[in-house]
Design goal:
Elements (H helix, E strand, L loop, with lengths): L1 H24 L3 E13 L6 E6 L8 E4 L3 E8 L8 E3 L23 E7 L4 E6 L11 E7 L16 E9 L4 H9 L4 H5 L6 H6 L3 H9 L14 E4 L4 E4 L1 E2 L2 E2 L5 E8 L6 E5 L4 E6 L2 E8 L2 E3 L4 E7 L5 E9 L5 E7 L2 E3 L9 H11 L26 H4 L24 H4 L24 E11 L4 E4 L10 E3 L4 E8 L5 E5 L4 E3 L9 E2 L1 E4 L4 E7 L4 E7 L2 H4 L4 E6 L10 H11 L4 E9 L2 E9 L3 E9 L7 E9 L7 E11 L8 E2 L5 E2 L4 E12 L3 E8 L4 E11 L4 E8 L4 E8 L4 E8 L3 E9 L1
Parallel strand pairs: 1-4, 3-8, 9-14, 11-21, 20-22, 23-26, 25-33
Antiparallel strand pairs: 1-2, 4-6, 5-7, 7-8, 9-10, 12-13, 14-19, 15-18, 15-20, 16-17, 16-19, 20-21, 23-24, 26-31, 27-30, 27-32, 28-29, 28-31, 32-33, 34-35, 34-47, 35-36, 36-37, 37-38, 38-41, 39-40, 41-42, 42-43, 43-44, 44-45, 45-46, 46-47
Helix pairs in contact: 5-6
Length: 756
């Protein structure tokens, strides 16, 4: 008995200690079941397909506390494969959710489980990384809370009532069709947004010379976004009333923390609050020193935590998200009572922006590299387009007193120097904590130039798309220091999977941490991070249609063996293929004097096209020309090609046509193979030189899309075969237009043109 008592006395404390230790270190498993299923929605007047998870759009908000283990079970009830990526979350590479890079796609009718520890906190989000599914509903908030005893817990900030706020866009178009139209230079979106910048508009606004100079430099119309959206949504609604939080009625003096995520596929949003200034307290899930601003622009895929205060009782203050192109907005009313609206943003001054573009771009298509003078969003290249800065507000500084030309003024693009409105930029962000990287770690320096072609909608890095490059090898434990220069005419939100990076913004050891870097045209920025987690990590532009066009890279950290992808080389080839998909277009003019049209299949570099002219009689004749060519150079102004020409036209027995060089050009059943080249001249005129196997030479000049008015286009063609054409095209919608033209072979005609 004594021995038993002694054993009990000794074992009991040990058992209690083991129990306490187990409880202390046990991780709480937080499990979500997600059912992915097709649905129908009507956000903008038409019933359209969308993808819902658990019957809702956005997807359910997933909430965890640091120290938890996430277990997320995905049930794919679609007729296509899917995936989920945990944006900004630190996790093992195999859980990152990129098909053919970190996992195989989740096939229809199957179930897949993601499981990873929650080792951070902050506002993040999750979305599909398969095709264009993100555009039609697959996005949701992913919130990781701090522990109550976290030493970084900030009273008055981290204990405020919070609202996850997911911004998204909706289009009634199939996103695959949007992607195809972007690659085929269809400007229906510009027509919908009143952003065509036609010659008639240029003359009316006193910018005819600006328009001429723009096209002389072979630039298309100025734009700040790619896609026209029918509706903007906040948490799935166009308008929302927030009157209570956690069961408590909102009153004067209450502060609300909005966890805002931009889940849009391609839209930037201006965020403003009718109740006064907004206080930024976190960005991309990382704490920052609080900073008060009047507004901020949230890039695609960024997150911001902002604190707003209700000034008075009896008023509901509008929190407004407006697309950068000013075409759409969505409202969140905070408080109880009469709704207090914030003034809408004025329309963009496109021709002023075009004038600035003209000054920035050289004749070879490159931008003037301003180096670090243009960095961290301090100098906004679009600032002249924002009339609330340059027109309606009083300037803080009198720049007329400067002994320098305006183009030498360092503040000429500085929004905060030019106006009284305070706009957030990255230089204003500062971490509350030391973010320095280990001083003894080796450093690998990389430089990327962001490149693109609006004419053909090809987006690349160093003029190479993902399908043209290998993974970038990185040793585990290296510091990657990356300098990025944007030499394209669009801004790009560059997102890094698996890591946060330091933004080198002049804050030294307190440089902010981010996982998305919005970089503007002409801008040069530097980021750095410690590559301490093995795996293949995606680095890409988060504008969905830019990513799908090839603006991607993969960092291969260490020699990671992914259990889900035993054949990594084969898997990578499948990933590469997605960034260089072919796109088809076709159009045909059903006219009174015959049919003429074209069809084209092209990817980033290659183009296979056929043109036809079919008369209604033998005298008008029939002709089909086919070209297979490859675009060369960053701007892709040059395309060598091989061709085949078949034509028939009934002529007199002794009747022949001669070209400008005196060569006989027989059209009576001519079959000829050719070598040629097409080159885009100033004014966007295509010059084509072609030599046929029988020695015939043909030179041509043509352009098909001269914007006379918003909907009216002029076209012309002439060549050394003494053929010529001139016509007008009036656009009704994205598929149909009315065309009239005169053709030297077929005479005058008018008809309906179908475009696809």
């Amino acid at each position: 008995m004594d021995i038993q008592n002694i054993i009990q006395k000794k074992l009991l404390p040990i058992a209690l200690m083991l129990l306490a230790t187990t409880s202390l270190f046990a991780q709480k498993v937080v499990r979500y079941e997600l059912y992915v299923k097709d649905t129908l929605v009507n956000y903008a007047g038409k019933e359209k397909r969308a993808i819902a998870i658990n019957g809702q759009i956005p997807m359910p908000t997933l909430t965890f506390t640091e120290g938890d283990t996430a277990e997320i079970v995905v049930h794919n009830q679609l007729q296509e494969s899917t995936s989920l990526h945990w944006h900004g979350v630190f996790l093992p590479n195999k859980e990152d959710g990129v098909p053919w890079l970190t996992q195989k796609p989740i096939e229809p009718g199957t179930t897949y489980t993601y499981r990873f520890p929650i080792i951070q906190h902050g506002t993040h989000w999750y979305h599909s990384h398969s095709g264009l599914q993100e555009q039609i509903g697959m996005y949701g908030s992913f919130i990781m809370l701090k522990k109550q005893n976290d030493p970084t817990f900030r009273k008055g900030i981290d204990d405020l009532p919070t609202i996850p706020l997911m911004i998204s866009e909706w289009t009634n178009f199939n996103p695959n069709n949007i992607n195809r139209m972007l690659h085929n230079a269809n400007d229906w979106a510009a027509i919908k947004k009143n952003a065509t910048q036609s010659y008639a508009e240029a003359i009316r606004k006193g910018h005819f010379k600006t328009k001429i100079k723009n096209e002389w430099k072979r630039m298309l119309a100025m734009d700040v976004s790619d896609v026209y959206y029918d509706k903007i949504l906040l948490n799935g609604n166009h308008t929302t009333d927030l009157k209570t939080v956690d069961g408590k009625v909102l009153k004067a003096g209450d502060k609300i923390r909005l966890r805002v995520s931009n889940g849009g596929a391609s839209s930037y949003f201006w965020l403003r609050y009718a109740g006064g200034k907004i206080t930024v307290v976190a960005n991309d899930g990382n704490d920052v020193e609080p900073v008060e601003v009047d507004r901020l622009i949230i890039a695609v895929s960024e997150t911001y935590d902002i604190v707003v205060t209700i000034p008075d009782d009896g008023v509901a203050y509008e929190f407004l998200a407006t697309t950068e192109d000013r075409t759409q907005s969505a409202s969140y009313f905070i408080g109880n009572g009469i709704k207090q609206l914030i003034s809408p943003l004025p329309t963009l001054k496109y021709f002023e922006g075009m004038k600035m573009m003209n000054d920035m771009m050289k004749m070879d298509g490159n931008l003037d590299d301003m180096g670090m003078k243009m960095s961290l969003n301090q100098m906004d290249m679009n600032v002249v387009m924002y009339s609330e800065i340059t027109g309606e507000t009083k300037q803080k500084q009198d720049h007329s007193q400067h002994n320098m030309k305006m183009d030498e003024d360092p503040n000429r693009y500085n929004a905060n120097a030019l106006g009284e409105i305070t706009t957030l930029n990255y230089a204003m962000l500062q971490s509350p904590y030391n973010t320095e990287l280990p001083k003894d770690a080796p450093i690998k320096e990389l430089k990327f130039t962001l490149t693109g072609n609006m004419n053909r909608y090809v987006w690349s890095m160093d003029n190479r798309i993902l399908s043209e490059v290998d993974k970038i090898p990185v040793k585990k434990g290296e510091i990657l220091r990356i300098t990025i220069y944007n030499n394209s005419m669009m801004r790009h939100p560059m997102h890094l999977h698996g890591f946060d990076f330091r933004v080198i913004n002049g804050k030294g050891e307190y440089s902010p941490l981010k996982n998305v870097l919005d970089i503007m045209p002409m801008e040069t920025d530097t980021i750095e991070f410690l590559a301490n987690e093995e795996g293949d990590w995606f680095f890409h532009c988060h504008i969905l249609y830019h990513m799908m066009s090839g603006m991607n890279r993969v960092f291969a950290v260490g020699d990671y063996q992914n259990p889900y992808l035993p054949n990594k080389k084969q898997a990578y080839k499948k990933l590469q293929r997605e960034s260089n998909m072919p796109h088809f277009m076709a159009q045909n003019d059903f006219a009174t004097n015959g049919n003429d049209g074209e069809a084209m299949l092209q990817n980033a570099r290659w183009s296979l096209g056929t043109e036809w002219r079919l008369g209604y009689n033998d005298m008008h004749g029939y002709e089909v020309e086919t070209h297979l060519g490859r675009y060369i150079g960053k701007m892709q102004w040059l395309m060598p090609f091989i061709g085949f020409d078949w034509r028939y036209r009934k002529m007199g027995i002794d009747e022949h046509e001669t070209n400008l060089f005196g060569q006989k050009n027989e059209k009576d059943t001519r079959r000829a193979v050719s070598l040629g080249v097409m080159y885009t001249l100033p004014m966007l005129v295509n010059f084509q030189a072609e030599v046929y196997h029988d020695g015939i030479v043909r030179l041509s000049l043509m352009r098909e899309d001269i914007p006379i008015t918003k909907r009216l286009r002029f076209a012309f063609m002439l060549n050394t075969d003494k053929e010529y054409m001139a016509g007008l095209n009036y656009i009704f919608n994205r598929n149909f237009s009315l065309r009239t033209h005169y053709d030297s072979d077929m005479g005058f005609g008018a008809g309906l043109t179908f475009s696809y």
